[in-house]
Structure formats: structure tokens, C-alpha cells
């Protein structure tokens, strides 16, 4: 297999197919057949995310996939921003009868959910109103599509909240960032939260905040984003409540869209190596795979031992599987499970039975460790923790190494082309300069200012030489 750091694109395509994550042969651009290994992992990711959302007061709900055009167009900026992305359903039935109005396949669910919110929210007692759904959305992407990075169909969770005051809504944005942090930390994905510049906000939002991580080829990937919507949507959708003084008020809103599908893609890319996937133990469909190494005369004993090891691990909450397929050699199995990224491999051969020991192999480092039978559970548990920690440290180191600074356009261009990552520059704040920088660097986007670490500009705008107003980061993104 290729190396993800030197040949990312080919490596990624290869790993998606060979590790059986998705099949791209469905033949509708941007739509995938998702296979068990990726779905089992994403289900675990959903559990972490949904548990966190519910713990923070969100209720689950499911809303229709189709949105009438009249709902879709209620908030002008939103409709304008998404208009090129919509799949429209225009007819149905055997007579192909046209619907009186077009139905949008939701590219995001503000317009579906807020239509109902306006019926459900009546007084201040109904607030805060916090709801989420996990679902598919569809976007008519013009750019080239890539599994788990950019698709015309993808899977995500969206949380939509309504509050009495602006302050509470702004606090929610912080809470969403905390949720993002918890999820990404579990997956060992480092990131920076940026406040996006004005010209790059979510359509209809007052302000947008998004987490960026860095892929092995130095390109950025936007992970969860959260938006302060102000009263833009509540006014368009008539989401009103009677306050404590009996006065009618419009609600203050936020929306939060962690795309589990895309986070999965980032996780695959960030941890993978030239043997395939490296799954963080926190979400790996299997934590350990047991490989019996059969040898004439001791087959039965080995098979029995493998079974008892599995039972022992399962009893301790460590998911495992015995690969005893006779048609494959142990060497073939090692490669296969390494490709799948299973964190720990346990080998059992005749010598191990004799010595009452087991051989453990770490997926992340390849290190072999011999342990006594009686210590197995404890040692596997310890190893899983070490792997989880190592993945974080390794990813964090790479992330830090790809953050740099540029004093002039030449340096910015050079860094973006040679190393990629996030490059810190000083900027006057004008869209014209942002556009120029993007064109000149062939795709260098203004990602915004890192939250909590805003710096005061000291010099001039990297492009026009006028007094700089902001210290921002630039990077090329997927
Ligand atoms: Zn400028």
C-alpha cells in the first residue's frame, strides 16, 4: 500500500476499497454503498455524540427529508446560499404527476425544523428548546466527490436550539464547541476552532465557528461547525414566545452540524499508514483479533485456547474475534487485520500453549509483547490505553508541525505549496484581499481567527500593505 503522507490521494482511494469501508461502484455520482466496517465505526461515533448532546439537554427527533420550496425560501440568505446545492423532487406516481410545488431534498434541516418549531414554541416556559436529529442530507456538489470527504449524500447530526436571550444562544455556541472537543479527542483528531470571517459564514447566520484539522497531505478539513443565527430565522419562520412580562418576542437561535461521515473520513486519513487503517480503540469495531497458529498435533489445544481467550476478553468488555478460517495462512490474516486497523492482535501458537503465554502485537507501532496467560486482560487493557494515547500524540505532533507563519506573499505561497497546513498572516479584513490571496495561492482560504487565542496584529496586511486588522490563518481545504 502507498504511504498516506507522500501519496495521499492514491492511498485514500486504496484504503477505502481494500479495507472494505465503502463501494463506489453504485454509479450515481457522490452516492456510496457503505459497508459494515465503516458503519459499525460510525455507529460508535454516533453513540458518543448523541450521548453528549442528550446529556446537555437536547431531545432527539426525526423530521421529513422533503422540504416544500415555499418553506425553503423563507430565509432569503439561506435560500440564496443553498440554491445551487439542492436536489429537487418534482413529480411522483405512475402518471408522473407534477407536484403543485417543488420539494427540496434537505441539504440541511433549518427550514423543515423551524416550520414546526413555530407551532411548538409558545411561551418562555418552552425555552430553552434544544433538539437534534441524526440523518442523511443531500447536496448537489459540483466539486469532485470523494468518499467520506465530499459527497452528494452524507450522514450527520444537526442540533437546532432556541433561547430567550442572545446571551444564552451565544453560550450554546460554546457548549457546541465543547461537544466537538469531546468527540474529536475521543477519535484522537487534533483541531483548532476558528471564527470564520464575515465572507465565509453559513448562509443565514450571524456568525460561524468551525473546527479545522489537517490531513496527511497538508490540506485542511472542516469538521463540526456551529452557528449563531441571531433572530434571522426566528423572524423568517415566526418562532415567537410570550416572555415573563407577557410580551411577544422572537427566539434567539443556534445550529450545530457535526458530520459524522466526514469526521470518519478525517479519522481514517489522519491515523492510517502504509499498512492500511489504524483505528482508535475508542471506536474500533473490534478491539482485538485472535489468530491461532495451527501446528500439527496441537490444533485442538490451540483452537480451544483461542476460544477461551475470546471469552475472557468479551467478559471484560473488550470486543474480539477469533479468525480461524482454515483457507488463510496466519501471515495473510496478519495483513488483513492490519489493513482493517484492529488495535491489538493476539497470536497463539504451540510454543505459547506450552509456555502458558500469549503474544500481543500493537497495530500502531508493530511492537510485539509476550504476556503471561493470567495477565492477559490487564495487559490488553493497558495496551488499548497506550494506543489511544499514542494516536493522539502522533496526530498532535503532525498538526503542530503544520502550523506556521508568513510575513509576505512569497513566503505564504511557498509554505502552502510545499507543506500546506495552517499559515498565520496579518490581514486588513477586506474581501478583496482575501480573494486575491486565494487566487494567488491557488486555493488558500481565509480560515479565520482561532477562538480563545485571538492575537493583536502588529504590522501590515500581507497583501495590500495597509494596517492589519486581524491575525488570521490561511490554508487549502478539502
Ligand atoms: Zn489587505
Written description of the protein model:
- The protein has 478 residues and is an alpha+beta fold.
- It folds into three domains: 8-271, BirA Bifunctional Protein, domain 2 (2-Layer Sandwich), CATH 3.30.930; 288-383, 3-Layer(aba) Sandwich (Rossmann fold); 403-476, C-terminal domain of ProRS (Translation Initiation Factor IF3).
- The chain has 14 helices and 23 strands.
- It has helices at residues 8-18, 36-55, 69-72, 76-82, 110-120, 166-186, 232-237, 260-271, 299-315, 330-340, 350-355, 376-401, 409-418, 431-440, and strands at 22-23, 33-34, 59-60, 66-68, 87-92, 97-105, 129-138, 153-163, 192-195, 207-214, 220-230, 240-242, 248-250, 252-256, 288-292, 320-322, 344-348, 357-362, 368-372, 403-405, 422-427, 444-450, 470-476.
- An eleven-stranded mixed beta sheet has the order 3-7-8-14-11-10-9-22-23-21-20. A five-stranded mixed beta sheet has the order 16-15-17-18-19, with helices on both faces. A three-stranded antiparallel beta sheet has the order 4-6-5.
- A hairpin with a 5-residue loop joins strand 12 (240-242) and strand 13 (248-250).
- Helix 2 runs antiparallel to helix 6 (166-186).
- The chain is globular and about 80 Å long.
- The mean pLDDT is 96.
- It binds zinc ion.
- Residues 428, 430, 433, 461, 463-464, 466 line the site of zinc ion.
